[in-house]
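Good morning,

Attaching, inline, the backbone tokens for the sequence recovery test we're adding to the shared suite. The designed sequence is right after.
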């Protein structure tokens, strides 16, 4: 007579199950949680964000890491997306990463080539002003008072004095 196996949860405690939990499930969970929280005045605030898009003047701006392109996606009155518009930049963007709103027509972004740049949008053109160069692997930026905090080498922040034009 053949015995039936009972599944009581111990099947997940095998080496492959533990490996899957430690190296896939937990890191994925931590990435999801870190994407939906941000800090404001040293407090955690719920906010779903992706580093490479930002809203400005009723449109969504997206920079593309691999191509260095900047795009605007107008948001229609009903909330739907309009036609994608390519934004011409005054100088090439090299591996743009973090993107933040600074003013009514201004964005600031980190570029992994090692710089932080301010983008002033006028129509379908962006005037690029380099705020600081020489930052190794700049991948994120946020404003705190009169300075920009730039994430470099994926592990530490550098303070860069910044005042919007």
């Amino acid at each position: 007579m053949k015995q039936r196996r009972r599944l009581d949860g111990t099947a997940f405690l095998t080496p492959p199950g533990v490996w899957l939990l430690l190296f896939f499930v937990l890191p994925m969970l931590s990435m999801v949680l870190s994407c939906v929280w941000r800090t404001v005045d040293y407090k955690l605030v719920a906010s779903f964000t992706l580093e490479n898009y930002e809203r400005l003047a009723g449109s969504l701006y997206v920079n593309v890491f691999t191509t260095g392109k900047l795009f605007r996606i107008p948001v229609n009155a009903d909330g739907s997306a309009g036609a994608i518009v390519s934004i011409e930049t005054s100088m090439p963007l090299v591996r743009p990463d973090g993107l933040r709103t600074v003013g009514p027509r201004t964005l600031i972004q980190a570029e992994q080539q090692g710089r932080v740049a301010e983008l002033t949008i006028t129509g379908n053109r962006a005037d690029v002003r380099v705020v600081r160069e020489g930052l190794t692997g700049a991948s994120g930026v946020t404003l705190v008072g009169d300075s920009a905090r730039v994430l470099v080498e994926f592990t530490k922040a550098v303070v860069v004095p910044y005042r919007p034009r």
